[in-house]
Write a structure and sequence with these properties.
Elements (H helix, E strand, L loop, with lengths): L1 H15 L8 E6 L4 H15 L2 E6 L2 H8 L7 E4 L1 H9 L9 E6 L1 E6 L10 H10 L3 E4 L1 H13 L3 H5 L2 E4 L4 H6 L5 E5 L9 E6 L8 E7 L6 H11 L5 H6 L3 E2 L3
């Protein structure tokens, strides 16, 4: 699968006239929810183009310091709302802002704990009611989890046993036993030590989180960075993204 994607990337890059001599050294700054997929794409793009691609997950004050430095990097992925302010501040090239991925919500429990039935919306509702404690984050996934709980009419009923996490993945807290049921984006929950993935949040309660990518105005390698964006939304990228439990943004 990676080979096929690499061949597709090679063809695309040849069309753009990118690759071969003068290999670039690209840096992509990523949000937590996009990182697994971007790492997968970076490997294929690097193999096909000869460019080196480093993926660095940054957030909060660390991301702000990076964006304000003389060498911020070349590309940034983030939830769509964040780009409005970044455009105003002149940190990204507006015309390059491109949606590329959707990450759906999933449920995990602590390793070895019984897995609840969440196969239907009604079963998911019953599992939330039965759980002794529930944890989910702020940000996009936390907002969507809360909206789903509100849609089920459970906001007040669950409030006393709900923990909202602020830093790091929900699975970190879950593995430490800080709550019984964790809900976040599936792609950052599957395969995490100390936890067991149960499955996706069912039906229309599962509202995925989008991520966009854009060229940073401080990029030292804008041509190669633009080629990377083109690859990230190409047909060759789709199977690589799906390997990380996300869906390519529909086009």
């Amino acid at each position: 699968m990676r080979l096929r994607a690499s061949i597709a990337a090679s063809c695309m890059l040849a069309t753009l006239g990118v690759g071969g001599a003068g290999a670039a050294d690209l840096v992509i700054l990523t949000n937590q929810g996009a990182t697994p997929g971007v790492r997968e794409l970076a490997g294929a793009f690097s193999q096909a183009s000869g460019h080196k691609v480093s993926v660095i997950q940054e957030a909060g004050a660390a991301l702000e310091r990076r964006l304000n430095s003389d060498a911020p990097g070349d590309l940034l992925t983030a939830n769509p709302e964040q780009f409005e302010e970044l455009i105003k501040k002149g940190k990204v090239v507006p015309a390059t802002v491109t949606p590329f991925v959707l990450a759906g919500l999933g449920v995990s429990v602590r390793a070895g704990a019984p897995k609840p039935d969440i196969s239907t919306v009604e079963a998911y509702k019953a599992a939330l009611i039965a759980a002794k404690s529930i944890g989910y984050s702020f940000g996009c996934s936390g907002t969507h989890v809360a909206e789903g709980i509100e849609k089920l009419g459970l906001t007040e009923q669950l409030k006393a046993k709900t923990v909202r996490t602020r830093t790091g993945p929900v699975t970190d807290y879950l593995a430490r036993g800080e709550f019984e049921l964790g809900i976040q984006q599936t792609n950052i929950m599957v395969g995490v030590a100390g936890t067991d993935y149960v499955g996706p949040v069912p039906g229309d309660i599962n509202k995925p989180c989008p991520s966009n990518v854009a060229l940073l105005t401080g990029s030292k390698e804008p041509e190669a960075a633009r080629a990377m964006i083109t690859f990230m939304v190409s047909p060759g990228a789709a199977p690589l993204l799906r390997k990380t439990h996300v869906e390519p943004y529909p086009r």
